[in-house]
Amino acid sequence: MVAPDTAGATIDDSPLAPSAVSRLVDLNVDPPFPNSGRFRVAQLLADPAFRATFHPRVASTTLALAWVAAGRYAGYVTDGQLSGSVHFSSGIALCQAAGCVVTGLRGQPLYKGIGGLVAAADQPTHAAILAVIDRQFGS
Known about the structure:
Helix content: 25-40%
CATH architecture: 3-Layer(aba) Sandwich
Strand order of the largest sheet: 4-3-5-7-6
Order of helices and strands: EEEHEHEHEEH
Distance between the termini: 38 Å
Number of strands: 7
CATH class: Alpha Beta
Strand content: 15-25%
Oligomer: single chain
Number of domains: 1
Shape: globular
Radius of gyration: 14 Å
């Protein structure tokens, strides 16, 4: 996979094409949990609305970000402060180059506010994931 500066991300000379068709959303349930007083990624697994809309998967690898960028997964959610994290930087860059919607946990710009990460194949998927997250935060 290559993520050039302007041409977008490619694999075998074909552009990556994020897609939400699979409805798979990877959830990273490993610590740390800096927002645990208000939000826990693991609670998305038990949320009826989340399960009705998406097919959750649990993994503790940012390889799932590449799957989102390549159109195999609809989204990825994790909590935590990611600024400067070597574990997330390449996956985030790949998602951005492929055209995914990538924000912090509350839809804020990356590395701002409460942190976290929501990467989604498209805007409707991103909005649907944020709606479930917002319910945990009470907004």
